Amino acid sequence: MFAAMLDGTAVFIGLVFALAGFIKGVIGMGLPTISMGLLAIVMPPVEAAALLIIPSLVTNVWQMVGGPSLATIVRRLWPMMVAVCLGTWAGAGLMTGATARYGAALLGLALIIYSVIGLTNVRFSVSREREPVLGPLSGGITGLITAATGVFVIPAVPFLQAIGLEKEDLVQALGLSFTVSTLALAFNVSMAGALNLSIAGATIGALVMAGVGMWIGTALRQRLQPAVFRRWFFIGLALLGIYLAVRSLA
User: Fold this and answer.
1) Is 71 exposed, middle or buried (0-12, 13-18, 19+ CB in 10 A)?
2) What is the pTM for the complete model shown?
3) Domain ranges across the chain
4) Cβ(205)–Cβ(79) under 8 Å?
5) Which pLDDT tens digits describe the chain residue by residue (250 residues)?
6) How many other C-beta atoms are found inside a 10 Å radius of the C-beta of residue 135?
7) Which of 60, 104, 188, 200 would staple 248 via disulfide (CB 3.0–4.6 Å)?
C-alpha cells in the first residue's frame, strides 16, 4: 500500500506527526485529529488511520497510566467505553465501502464542530444521575464517528469535560477514551486489510516524529500562553475542516 510512496509524501507524513505530537505536548490532545485531518489531503482515510494506530496508542496509554485514579475512572466509565467499541465495530466498512468517498467530508465536518466548541468555550454539565444513559449514548456516537473518520473527539471529549472530573482525572479519562477508541479502530482497519507489515517502517517513523514533537511541545508548554495557542489551534483546525469538506464534495 505504501510501497510506491514518494519521498516528498514521506517527509510530509513525518512533519504531520511532528506537528500533531507538538500540539498534544502543549495542550494534551490533538494528535489523531491533526494527523487524520492533514493526512487525508494525500491519502485515503483508512490508510491515514493505519499510520495513526501505533503513535496514538503509545501516546494515549502513556497519558492514561500517568495518574493515580485509573481504576476508579474505569469503574465509572466502562459502560461508555463498551459503547465506544460497539459503535466503532458497527461502523466497520464506512472508510472503505460505498460511503468511503464521503469520509473526508465527514472528517472535515467533525473538525469544524470540534473547532466551534473549542473556540466558543461551550461548557456542558451532566449530572451523575444522567451518566448511565448519556455515557453509553455518547460512546456509541463517538464510535460511529471514529469508524467513519478516524477522529474520536466528538462527542466524547465534551461529555468527559461535562461530568465534573478533577483536572488530573480528566486527563486520565481522556487517555482511557482515546486508548479504547484507538484499539477499536485498529480492529476495523485490520479487517479492511490496511494494517499489515508493509507499513511498519512508516509507522515507526511516525511514532518517532510524534514523540519528538510531543517532547518539544511539553518542554515549551510553560513558555507559551495556552489560551492563545488553543485559539489559533482551533482556527487552523476549522480551516482544515472546511478545506476537506469542500474538496471532497466538489
Assistant:
1) exposed
2) 0.81
3) 7-249
4) no
5) 444 444 677 888 889 999 888 887 777 677 887 888 888 788 888 888 888 888 888 878 877 887 778 999 999 999 999 999 999 999 888 877 666 667 778 778 888 888 888 888 777 788 899 999 999 999 999 999 899 888 888 889 889 989 988 877 888 898 899 999 999 999 998 887 777 766 777 888 888 998 898 888 878 766 767 677 778 778 888 888 888 788 777 6
6) 23
7) 104
